Amino acid sequence: MSKGISREKLEEIKKKFDEKISSVKNSEDLENLRIAFLGRKSDFSLLLRGIKDLRLEQKKLIGDFANKIRKDIKGIIESKKNELEGGEVDNEWIDVTAPGEKQEIGHLHILSQTQKEIEEIFSTMGFEIADGPEIDNEWYNFDALNMPKDHPARDMQDTFWLKQEAKNEKGEKQKLVARTHTSNTQVRYMEKHKPPFRIIVPGRTFRYESTDANHEHTFSQFEALVVGDDISIANFKDIAEKFFTLFFEREITVRLRPSYFPFTEPSFEFDISCTVCDGKGCSSCKNSGWLEIGGSGMVNQRVFEAAGYERGKYQGFAWGFGIDRLAMMKYKINDIRLFAGGDLRFIKQF
Amino acid sequence: MKYSYNWLKELSKTEKSVLELTDLVMLKGFELEETEELKKRFDNFVVGEIISVKAHPNADKLKFARVNVGSQELSVVCGASNIEVGQKVPVALVGAILPNSKIEIKASEIRGEKSEGMLCAEDELGIGKDHEGILILDKKLEIGMSLAEAIELDDVMIDFDILPNRAHDCLSHEGMAREIAVMEGRRVNFELEKQEWEKTEKLSIEIKEKDLCQRYMGAVLNNIEVKESPLWMQNILIACGMEPINNIVDITNYVMLEIGNPLHAFDANMINDGEKIEIVVRKASKGEKLQLLDDSNLELDENDLVIANHEESLALAGIKGGKKSGISKETKRIVLESANFNSFSIRKSRQRHCLLTEAQARFEKNITPVLAERGLQRAIELFVEYAGAKLEGVVDENYFEQKQETVDLEITKVNKLIGKEVDEKKSREILENLGFEIVSEDKGKWEVKIPYWRLDVEGSEDLTEEIGRISGYENIESVPMKTVVAPPEKNKIREFEWKVKDLMTTLGFNEVVSYSFYSHEEAKLFGIENHFELKNSLIPQHALFRKTLIPGILEKVSLNAKNFDQFSIFEIGKTYNVGKDNNPEESFLISGALYSKDASGEDNFYELKGKIDEFVKKLLGKSIDFKADSSGRAIMEINGRKIGWIGKIDKNVKKFYSIKSDVVAFKISLDSLFEIYQNLEEKIYKTLRKYPVVERDLAMFTEPKVEVGGMEALIKKNGSKNLLSCELFDVYSNKETKQKSLAFHLEFGDDEKTMTGEEVDDLMENIIKALEGAKYKVRKQ
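Structure tokens for the assembled complex are given below, as produced in the milestone run.
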């Protein structure tokens, strides 16, 4: 090394140090490195001796810079030392890339997860979660909902009928059905409760329908029923928008179109802004900007009467949506049969 | 219903395009099923002229024609006998798709002759029923012009879904046109001027079932010429999805599509010989036979309503006409029926005979008898104009009385239900455009008269719906609820269910979902009886409501064994028991299985048992007692209460589900667990033990089939309260001696003091004595 200290020479030393430190593997290497760079006979120490030959203003400048370099090198050696010797982990070699001991946590079915999510959202909005029977008599499934026998509206739902007929408390024979909707719980609940109330009824429902990618004879629905003195269409829209916004985790707007269900008046078909394109139009919504979700409406006064309420005293809304359908929309599942299929390659995805 | 766009446009006076119109109707009235531009059906169909016709050299019945289609000359093999040189005919070019059969026309060779297209008959084009020969077109048509243009088919079919509430009035073009006008803020009026017809003595009508037929109008028309109906009418029928037949049938269909009342034309001469015609509306007698227009034969019973003469039935009322009195080319005199039939009766007959017709669809949904008169009037006009008919007279047998129905409407209640102030003037306008009439009003309370065609309106909510939808649901803004409700009741069983599901997944189980049904075969396999059974099951595999979840579980095991060597699954679901008086009793179960391809059944059993044990311990803080039962299952009990079982699945059952390796499954009643859970004592903190624990091991050997449970019970019984735990930590089966050796780890302790070695020795001695007394061999140390 040529005599005479300069900023360039100091930088060169630091550069050399940086190169070497990265290849240090153990304490011994590190100690050698320390001696080589900071020892009394190191190039660095030799170079420092040249400071005394500098002019006064240079002395201060170079001196400070040299000190900084020394501090840096010291610091790096110190922390490398900690890394090699100290710390909470034993330094013994272990193949960290080898696989760990196998553990398994199971997967909740995606329908369960979806239902749970729905229940949680509604619970925060003050809804009670109610239940009803899956096999029911035709009174609760149809008649009480303004769908008397031989009414054309009964054809709107393809029904699984049971061979057996049951006798009610009065001894009257009643036909039994696999409930076609969770709405069978509406009158059952209202018989035991007085408004105001808000409930959802999640559960399994059945339709006499051959299965394909979009249709299942067994599926899950959740009913919402809100009744009070002044519950309006505007309230319904509000709850619906809040729910879907929380469920899809994006701003959702709701569109109501006229429809007909015997147990609501007025009745609506219910669309939400497309969850893929937010209403701009895409292939998922066939460029309409809207996705069809299900049916809803303001509870028909005849249903209130069937539950023993006075006609005209209350008003409220009801809806029924497919949990399967919501799960399919949210997770882009393209075949409804996967749900009951039970393939773990499907179940373990969620 | 399928509507003709052109016709709706004419009736409603709308200027909207198809897309604008369907968007409007969808938002304010009816769901759109589909639209179809009709001329697209005839892409690649053109008018061609026949240049030459030869017999096919290799087939007697075929002909070989050369056809000029403008751009080129084609060779076409044809089976029809009516083609001649110089005729203009419809030609399906290569690539054309026949509208009805959806068959694509391809260039081919028929018995050695090239064929580059097809000459079409009416039925092949879907524009008529005729298949007697190739459709011969007007000679004046230009060669090569598109067929759609040649037959003036330039309409769009619009299919709206009409739900039962509006089927009374909107299964007609007038009804739909009225709606469209209202949606555009206008009113159209379709009322015809009331006509006084001459009564005729030639026709007698007797209604025997006045409940089932409130009105029967018959018109006798003579001088009829049966021919093709005008092209515009045929095209309207095609647009509405019907096939033109002849002018008489077409007119009845046309009027039904226009006004909504189905009509039927009888050949008068086939009802009665001679001048005088007798019509009876009566119930059929049991076993009575009727051949319908489509040649099918019905066997009727007393629940069917028929139109008859004095001898036999002529038509199944409101559903379909009979063959004998149908219109033929020879028909000269007709009886035109315009009637009203009871919807329930029609529905029942339809269900019994599985007959779906346009007429039935309308009567079944209930229409007002007023329409019968309007339909008859319109049809007579058309018969005179397009069939050269002369009216002999009309008979109106009417038991229907139009009542003036009104509904009270409070405008504040409309606002309250909608949740928005709706302009009063606008509401009035909407109702009036729809045909409602406000007959009186008093401080926001209106008495509203319902138009005769609106059989769906019965209360103020119906009027609110009309105001709401026409003024636009999209204009209702969201408003948070004001009603305050008490905090909701907890659904405890649901919370419990989620807890169970979480624990099961933590233990490595994956959740599956199965159908609620299984087959008779499976019920037999599991020896279960007395199920709820579907009357109309879709497939035999889904015939019975399940009483166990195991079949579903095993199905899933079988499926997943193809992809996974080991897994555990569970399902929570309802099973359905037949209760008293056939009332359903649903119980809530959890079942599951553990599958491991290579492990022994015993290993699998203990693994599953360990998991279930841990599950219950965590859930309830209790341990399960396991007891073997005679079938090989381990019965699980908690405090003496049976909660379920666990066991290795039988090999015949495995065979049924095509499972090869061992499977261990379990079933637990969630209802029972929930009951125990609800009655659990509240948890109270126990002070931590201050004094040391003394540990001892105990080794024994026994015959191989001796249960560990018995030893454990004895140890615990004799260990006093100082025995804190007893755990089996080693089991070894000696292959030579066939003996099993077992080692237990015992812990002793006392809450008050440190136990001395002597005290523990005494307890150990008691335990060993008891074990030996029970003939267990204890290994002395």
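Chain A touches chain B through 87 residues (CB under 8 Å). Residues 7-85 of chain A form one domain. Further analysis is deferred to the final report.
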